[in-house]
Each structure stands twice: as C-alpha cells, then as structure tokens.
Amino acid sequence: MNPECEPVLHLMSTPVVTLDPEAKVGELLLLSQRLSIHHFPLVDESGLVGLVCTCDLEGARPEHRVSKFARRAAVSVRPDAMAHEAAAHMLLQGVGSVVIADEEGVWGILTRDDLAEAVPELMRDQRCIQCGSRKHLRSGPNHTLVCPACDARAGRTSSG
Fold this sequence. Notes:
Helices cover 24% and strands 21% of the residues. A three-stranded antiparallel sheet has the order 1-2-3, with no helix packed on it. Strands 4-5-6 form a three-stranded mixed sheet. The chain has helices spanning 25-35, 83-93, 112-118, 120-123, 148-153, and strands spanning 39-44, 47-53, 71-72, 76-77, 97-102, 105-111, 138-139, 145-146.
C-alpha cells in the first residue's frame, strides 16, 4: 500500500486528551508536562470547538481560560481520511496537527511529527526555513514556515 494513502486512523496518537474550553491554562500546562503532549482539542457539549497548543500560551496567566488562546475552528479530518489529506490540511491551514473527529466525537490527533515519522515524503518541506525544526511552526514570509525562535530573532510576531 502507498504510505500516503494510509488511513489517519492508523497513524493518529491516542488516547487524545481533550479539555473543556473553560479549563484553566495552569491545568493545561500541568497536563502537558505530566503527559508530554502539546496539542489539546477543546470539546464541549456541542463537540469539537477549538484546539490549543502549548505554544499558543505565551504570556498566558495560569488562571486564564484556555479558550482565550485556542485556534478557533480546529482543523480536523475524518477517521477514514488518508495521510496525504491530513498533510494537505496542515499545509493549507498552517497548523502542526489535525484533530481526527466525526459526528461520534474526537478519535485522536495527528501531528506533523507523527506524519514525518510514518510518511516522511509528505513532510519533507514542513520545516522552519531558518533552522529546519518541525516544532510549533508558524506562517512565515512568502508562504514559508518558521519556528517561534527564528520568528522572534527576525523580529516578527505572528500566530500559528
């Protein structure tokens, strides 16, 4: 089988840790440290409402609600989507992960690193243009990607 056509269901990280949008930043940071994860889908009674990454929390106070820092309209794909579809969504939306979800709920999460490990050819160009990192990339100049450290060195500020 062509690895680019591998179902995301086989590549995603599980179990996924979801948070209520009203959860506090301090709670998220403790979970992140304890579980070594950085991406948290936000779920309420209506379903998936956002996604927050620890890199989105710079300057956040522990008592702030995580929803204040969330990427609205989390980028998601269905469990039967293929790896190449998830990679295309990440690139087009400028995100480092997609939530695997459907009408039944959140199934898992697929990060840029998960894809780079499973299907390296899909993520070949998904690196910081300055240092080559794959971590916490943001949109850079001329449709490129840049990590927060290189972005700061360049004196730019952006959200990703």
